[in-house]
Design brief:
The chain has three domains: about 120 residues, no CATH class; about 70 residues; about 90 residues, Lipocalin (Beta Barrel), CATH 2.40.128. Helix content is about 55%, strand content about 15%. The protein is built from twelve helices and eight strands. The protein has an eight-stranded antiparallel β-barrel. The protein is elongated.
């Protein structure tokens, strides 16, 4: 028994010496395995801590942070890991690498920093257009403001930028009204179409030949009137023009307007012996631009 104990002790001493030699030669992985097998947890932890420090000194921050994370309960390893992740997060945030910053701050457990990343991400999309639009609006350059805001996806607008949607609508209205004052009706039309329902936009559209443009339907008929003077009646292509209360197709009187109110249109078909009344609902607005001024001239009135 005594001989066995002495043999075990000598074997342990030899293995400890081997581990020390391997560690001295820089083979810390192999050395750590021997120390772990010998049950020397403190030594393994010290070696792991030193290895993490070495990684950090070499600038391998991500690997260092991950190494410190694995040393749970060893000295201040948890704090060192968090500090490194926070540093990596700040670097990524300054570089505009929002996904990387978010991941790093999440590893650091820093919820406030994660929120800062989200704010910065949103600002990177919305801040510049918002400022451009504001400057243009204050200078009366409404078209420039519209151009700055038009590409934005309003369904994804953060709460603090939600008011920009109203700014966009109001700016479209102001530019449309400005162009109407200059009697530039063809350029005014698309701006006013963008802000239907705002202020007196629908009334302004109603007071022009634009009010009749679009696709109109009921159960029996489909009438399409485009801004370029082309259209279709129940699938048959036609050209059209409006003159007073008459709607002419292919140069001939075809309908009389009884009612045009918003998206409701009532016509009397005068092409036959019996005048049929068409009650139609608009299902789409025309998007063919620009409108030829000759098409609208008879019906356009200055606002």
């Amino acid at each position: 028994m005594k001989d066995d104990a002495e043999a075990a002790s000598r074997a342990k001493a030899l293995r400890e010496q081997l581990a020390a030699d391997l560690e001295a030669e820089g083979l810390s992985g192999e050395a750590a395995e021997i120390y772990a097998a010998l049950g020397n947890a403190d030594k393994v932890a010290d070696m792991g801590y030193a290895a993490a420090e070495a990684l950090l000194a070499e600038g391998r921050k991500t690997e260092a942070a991950e190494a410190f994370e694995k040393l749970e309960g060893v000295r201040d390893a948890a704090g060192r890991a968090k500090a490194i992740w926070s540093s990596l997060g700040e670097e990524a945030l300054r570089a505009g690498a929002f996904d990387e910053a978010d991941a790093a701050f999440t590893r650091a457990g820093d919820e406030e920093a994660v929120a800062r990343v989200q704010t910065a991400r949103e600002d990177s999309v919305w801040a510049a257009p918002a400022q451009t639009a504001q400057n243009a609006l204050e200078a009366g350059r409404y078209a420039q403001a519209v151009s700055a805001l038009e590409p934005m996806n309003w369904d994804e607008a953060p709460e603090r930028y939600a008011s920009l949607r109203e700014t966009y609508t109001r700016t479209c209205y102001l530019e449309g009204c400005r162009l109407m004052e200059e009697e530039d009706y063809e350029r005014a039309y698309p701006y006013l179409q963008r802000c239907r329902g705002w202020e007196d936009t629908d009334e302004r559209l109603q007071r022009t030949g634009w009010a009749i443009l679009g696709t109109w339907r009921n159960e029996a008929h489909t009438l399409i009137l485009r801004g370029d003077g082309t259209g279709a009646v129940d699938g048959a292509a036609v050209t059209w023009a409006q003159s007073g209360y008459s709607l002419n197709l292919d140069g001939e009187a075809a309908f009389k307007l009884s009612l045009l109110q918003g998206d409701l249109l009532m016509l009397r078909d005068v092409r036959g012996d019996t005048e049929e009344v068409w009650s139609l609902k608009r299902t789409a607005h025309d998007a063919v631009l620009p409108l030829p001024s000759t098409l609208l001239r008879l019906e356009v009135m200055k606002p």
